[in-house]
Specification:
Elements lengths: L2 H25 L5 H5 L1 H11 L14 E4 L5 H11 L5 H5 L29 H19 L8 E6 H5 L1 H12 L5 E7 L2 E2 L2 E2 L8 H8 L2 E6 L3 H11 L6 E6 L22 H10 L12 H11 L15 H9 L8 H15 L3 E5 L25 E3 L4 H13 L3 E7 L3 H14 L4 E5 L17 H6 L5 E3 L4 H13 L4 E4 L13 H5 L3 E4 L8 E5 L3 H14 L4 E5 L3 H5 L3 H8 L4 E5 L8 H4 L4 E3 L10 H7 L4 H11 L1
Helix pairs in contact: 1-3, 1-4, 3-4, 3-10, 6-8, 6-15, 8-15, 13-14, 14-18, 15-16, 20-25
Length: about 625
Amino acid sequence: MTPEHHHNLQLIANTIRALSIDAVDEANSGHPGLPLGCAEIFSVLYGDFLRFSPKNPTLHSRDRFVLSAGHGSAALYSTLHIAGFEVSLEDIKRFRQLHSITPGHPEYRETPGVETTTGPLGQGIATATGMALAAKHKGAKSPHSNNHMVVVLAGDGCMMEGISSEASSLAGHLKLNNLVVIYDSNDICLDGPISETFTENVGERYRAYGWNVVTIDGHSIPEVSKSLNDSRHSVTPTLIIAKTTIGKGSPTYQGTSDVHGKPLGRTESATTKQSFGFPSETRFHVPASVYDFFNAKYSTVTTPDYPHRQAPILPTLEAIKSLEIKPNLATRAISQAILQTILTHCPDFIGGSADLSCSDSTFMKLGGILSSSNYTGRNIKYGVREFAMAAACSGLAIEGLRPLCGTFLTFSDYMKNAIRLAALMNLPVIYQFTHDSIFLGEDGPTHQPVEHLAALRSMPNLTVIRPADITETKAAWIHALQSQNPTALILTRQAINDSLNTSIDGAMAGGYIVKQESGSTLDFTIISTGSELSLALQVANSLEAHGKQVRVVSLPSFELFDAQGNDYRQSVLGRPGQFVSIEAQSSFGWHKYIGSDGVAISIDTFGLSAPAADLATHFGFTETAITTRILGNK
């Protein structure tokens, strides 16, 4: 590295420092500690190492950078600005303000150059693992796909979070040598020195995962540059432990937790700028030579690109519709039959499970198992790593694949924050959750979901579908493959009844009538989902034997139904009459359909360990018990 190049990179680092502390001060909100401590890392990454095009930030052949420690976003925005991305100085001045493209934490699709939404610590590492895996998978399938690098900047908090352990263990197992994690090891977290909470040897942990590990001075531009360039030649993932000083340059606060998440204030900012030779009286100042550096670096660069082209989805949907499936299977088994067809017709589709593919029915028999010796495999065995699995699927989706991941519904809680980020990013990840009620039986209340449907239904941008039979399961998959948002498929362990008069079009609308009342009056409208729909039809017949007029509505998806017009919804639900819901989950959320005086046949306690038939009797999920309750309530 020539003295001139070193000087340029150091000036870039100091410019990142100055812009970042000005942005935080202007907003009176933010985290100056990381930008001050990691400025040389950003400078080397964007000034020396990463392959990218600021005028074409989605260039497929680019290297990716993920700021897992998303609270340090001011440094990323400042770097993107000076590197020539469409992030203006005015955008930097509007840091953390309403409708700005410089929000408090990096958000996917909001800011050019931001590869994924980050903020919840550790998830950046896991999402980047999925991104690196996607590059390996596509590179193995196509000679036109380059094996680009995925670089992550993580902090002590990321290393403490369990998801980073899950993801890093998986990455080491799969030998993702295109993945680099830079660990900003400054020995400080929000609440004080890490000596109070975190004394393990991180390097030894990562060596045990099968990673290449190096330790450097994070403020040394030559050391940062060498470690990154060496990582391109590693046969395993690389962890670069960069020893830094948080808030470097702040005379009062550097090296303390006080600088982590509080603005420095104008006086301290001025003296901090002086410490690294920047004019203290200026704000939002970028030396002309910094702009010139990046203009010279990228104005003449032409990078060949091999974009990922997704196959047309229509043939896959038609194949699903015409697929012959044996009747009266569990909906998990129906879904598995559909998956074999998707595998054949949709080359962008990739599946996986958290050590349960033999039970959650996600395995695609002709897909092969993805491994370090076969990146073309279409089945990913994530091991018992639900949280990392969900975040990695977001990375796969960001890279243009259509990922499915599966586990039991009760374990959706382990995945919840990753599902939330996928919904926030509008990523078309598909989650297959099986063993969807107390009727999974003898495994008992630890495995029997009760509150999980209500929790998933409460999440914006997530479509939750609980199909009742073959037809509705087909509809669920058709929706999931067409959607640009995440979809959760909620499926049974036990066999279901397929003679239900169901409809693909009705299920795609989220709710529809499966049994019309026979007369001009209406006493009861029974609304149900999933395996309980056949029970609802039995109850309707029983009520009709008592002279009642009964309508039965299948409501596989609250979200799809709520998206329909009011006239359609009213035509399906019908009035007057009393509403009844039948679903072997919590009643929470049902009263928006059945009203305050409706009858919710539900499970509002934890389950029990027993055969499914005994549980149905105990919890009142039988034709006789429900009929008696409805008539008694009326």
